[in-house]
């Protein structure tokens, strides 16, 4: 029992220690915790364009490093999150945002989950309705035949 | 009948779609990783950067205003740039418009050596040591090639190694007389 709790504690410790390992930055970008949290938030929702399924916070591609520097400098200069995002979308398009804005071009993207649910519900309803109209046939002797 | 036809038809349609995409990826006319540049139809970013040949000499892109020109982003560290290089030499010579090379986060001495050995397709080559101008152009991987029109707007962007076929299809139609 005691061993088990030690094991659990150790595993917990490993997980706790490995959390900061997700980030590429080895040092905080800002001494001010508020600015640092903005920096972390932004770099975690900006896509690395080289390794397209990573954020710029967890990619060690050279371009991701340059984009982190860009974000860092813009925050230090006092730019708002919106200004930083529009700086990047003007150059790389909405693709750079992990949370793309709703627009005519992204409408299908945003509507797709809802449309799929509707389609599924439609198919299920139709199938159930059709089956319920069929005569009930639960003669067991026929099945074993 | 429908119960067999529908899945078979769906399979054939999907299969045809995949085959079409594979063929286009194979011959370079489609790139699934391509990011459509928001710069198309917008004014080209301007830059003042030191030249690769001499770091004390700056090149100002606004001197190109009023005529079409090509911007090619490359680096000696980039294998596809080396693949592209022979085609670039031919294309640049034929096109008859300025080709500006942006040497992206590179070593100046290596770049000079590279151009000396393989030939220099560029009218001017500038060094973007910090990668800031590359970000202005929305560059995400070398090589990337842009065509800027006489009005100063970006007409075409191509990411990946340029070939004469790609040039003829995507760039040449925008250049009157040349290409």
Describe the structure.
The complex is a heterodimer of chains A (145) and B (179). Chain A is mainly alpha-helical and 145 residues long. Chain A folds into 2 domains: 22-100, Helicase, Ruva Protein, domain 3 (Orthogonal Bundle); 102-133. Chain A has 6 helices and no strands. Chain A has helices spanning 2-18, 33-44, 62-77, 81-92, 107-133, 140-144. The longest helix of chain A has 27 residues, at 107-133. Chain A is flat. Chain B has 5 helices and 7 strands. Chain B has helices spanning 2-26, 79-95, 108-118, 132-136, 164-171; strands spanning 48-50, 58-60, 69-74, 99-104, 124-128, 144-148, 154-159. In chain B, the strands form 2 sheets. In chain B, strands 5-4-3-6-7 form a 5-stranded mixed beta sheet. In chain B, strands 1-2 form a two-stranded antiparallel ribbon. The model of chain B has no long low-confidence stretch (mean pLDDT 92). The A-B interface holds A 49-50, 52, 62-63, 66-67, 70, 89-93, 95 and B 33, 35-39, 105, 130-132, 134-141.
Q: What's this entry about, in short?
A:
With 145 residues, chain A is mainly α. In chain A, 61% of the residues lie in helices and 0% in strands.
Assign the structural class of chain B, choosing from mainly alpha, mainly beta, alpha/beta, alpha+beta, or little secondary structure: alpha/beta
Just give the CATH class of the largest domain in chain B.
Alpha Beta
- The termini of chain A sit apart by 57 Å
Rg of chain A, alpha carbons = 26 Å
Note the main attributes of this structure.
heterodimer, A: 145 residues, mainly alpha, Helicase, Ruva Protein, domain 3, 2 domains, 6 helices, B: 179 residues, alpha/beta, Glutaredoxin, five-stranded mixed β-sheet, 5 helices
């Amino acid at each position: 029992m005691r061993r088990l709790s030690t094991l659990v504690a150790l595993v917990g410790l490993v997980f706790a220690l490995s959390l900061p390992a997700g980030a590429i930055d080895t040092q905080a970008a800002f001494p001010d915790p508020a600015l640092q949290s903005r920096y972390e938030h932004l770099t975690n929702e900006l896509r690395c364009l080289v390794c397209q399924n990573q954020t710029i916070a967890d990619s060690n591609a050279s371009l991701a490093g340059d984009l982190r520097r860009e974000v860092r400098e813009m925050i230090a200069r006092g730019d708002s999150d919106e200004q930083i995002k529009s700086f990047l979308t003007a150059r790389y398009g909405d693709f750079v945002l992990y949370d793309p804005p709703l627009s005519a071009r992204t409408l299908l993207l945003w509507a797709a989950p809802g449309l799929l649910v509707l389609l599924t519900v439609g198919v299920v309803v139709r199938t159930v309705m059709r089956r319920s109209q069929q005569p009930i046939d639960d003669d067991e002797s026929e099945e074993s035949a | 009948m429908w119960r067999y036809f529908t899945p078979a038809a769906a399979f054939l349609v999907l299969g045809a779609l995949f085959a079409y995409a594979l063929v286009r990826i194979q011959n370079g006319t489609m790139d699934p990783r391509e990011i459509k540049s928001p710069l198309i139809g917008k004014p080209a970013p301007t830059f003042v950067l030191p030249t690769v040949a001499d770091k004390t000499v700056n090149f100002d892109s606004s001197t190109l205003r009023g005529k079409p020109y090509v911007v090619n982003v490359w680096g000696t560290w980039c294998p596809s740039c080396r693949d592209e290089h022979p085609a670039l030499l031919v294309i640049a010579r034929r096109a008859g418009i300025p080709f500006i090379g942006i040497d992206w986060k590179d070593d100046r001495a290596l770049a000079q050596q590279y151009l000396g050995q393989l030939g220099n397709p560029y009218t001017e080559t500038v060094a973007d040591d910090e990668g800031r101008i590359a970000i202005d152009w929305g560059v995400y991987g070398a090589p990337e090639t842009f065509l800027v029109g006489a009005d100063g707007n970006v007409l075409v962007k191509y990411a990946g190694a340029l070939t004469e076929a790609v040039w003829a299809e995507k760039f040449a139609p925008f250049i009157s007389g040349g290409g």
